[in-house]
Structures are given as structure tokens and as C-alpha cells.
Design brief:
With 166 residues, the protein is of the alpha/beta class. The chain has three helices and ten strands. 26% of the residues are buried.
Length: 166
């Protein structure tokens, strides 16, 4: 781990090309982002209104505007999450968990050691409760979830702006 950034391992990632990766925790980022190189492009939603993205240095993102988002199911330690991520180019990062994630989860962060922990008995996004899906049912499940939430995702209702900072 770099002394200048905090990353956490995420695992059992559904809707990504990899089952495990690292996520950068970044309180200056205005969303949850995933690099397009690791996204399973079969399960994406096209946004009605593209989102302009600027990097922290003020330059526009190399990929241009964001046109897609995807729902990713993943684990951090013993906590299960299911969140929408905007797809863009992230450089040397694969996943960025920004301020909206920090507000939603409110993890305990030891800024001196870089350790991230979660409050006890925290339940996050309980939508995946019930029986586990077989591998061949996962794509069908994700496709169903994406279709059910397509109107909400297309409207970008979770944004107060059409411009985000990474």
C-alpha cells in the first residue's frame, strides 16, 4: 500500500471481468467509478444524458463523457455491496469509491495506518439475501436487475449535476 493513498481489496465481483481487484478510497471523488477495461459489457446501462468528467488536475477525462453505468455486486471483508458505478477510464486504478460511498457506508478509517474497518452489525444493500445463485443464473439475475432499474439509471436521478470530478 502506498503511504499516499488508501486502497481496499474487493472480491466476488459480479459484472466485472475479474473476481478480485483493489478499490481506491477517494473522498474528493464525486461518485463510484469503474475502469471500462474490467467491465463485463454485456450488463451495462446507456445513460440518456452523458456526464462530463474532469480529473483532479482540471483536465477532462481521456475517455470523454460518461455514457454508461453498471451495477456491481462485490464484497469488502464480510460486507456485501450492490452499487451503480459509472464507467470511464481510470488510469492505474480499476475502481474508485468516492464520497457518495463513504457517506453511504461510513467506514472507520485510520488515516495514520490506512486501515479501513466497518461498524459492527452493519447491513448494506440487503437485496441479495436468500438462496445463492448458480453461475449460469448470475447473468440472468443481473440482466433482470438491470432491466428493472433501467429507467432510474437512465434518468441519472442520483445526480444533482451533469458534471463530476474524479
Amino acid at each position: 500500500m502506498s503511504k499516499n493513498k488508501i486502497t481496499i481489496p474487493i472480491s466476488q465481483c459480479l459484472n466485472l471481468k475479474t473476481a478480485e481487484t483493489k478499490a481506491l478510497i477517494d473522498s474528493g471523488t464525486e461518485g463510484k467509478f469503474v475502469d471500462g477495461m474490467i467491465v463485463n459489457w454485456k450488463n451495462i446501462i446507456h445513460l440518456k444524458k452523458p456526464i462530463t468528467v474532469q480529473n483532479v488536475d482540471g483536465t477532462y477525462n481521456e475517455m470523454g463523457k460518461i455514457h454508461y453505468k453498471t451495477k456491481i455486486c462485490y464484497n469488502v471483508k464480510q460486507n456485501q455491496f450492490e452499487d451503480w458505478f459509472y464507467i470511464t477510464k481510470l488510469g492505474d486504478q480499476k475502481v474508485i469509491l468516492g464520497l457518495p460511498w463513504l457517506k453511504q457506508v461510513n467506514p472507520n478509517i485510520d488515516w495514520l495506518t490506512g486501515r479501513v474497518s466497518f461498524p459492527e452489525e452493519q447491513s448494506i444493500n440487503d437485496e441479495l439475501e436468500g438462496e445463492e445463485l448458480e453461475d449460469d443464473e448470475t447473468d440472468t439475475y443481473l440482466h433482470t436487475i438491470l432491466k428493472e432499474e433501467e429507467l432510474d439509471a437512465d434518468a441519472n436521478e442520483d445526480l444533482e449535476t451533469d458534471h463530476l470530478w474524479i
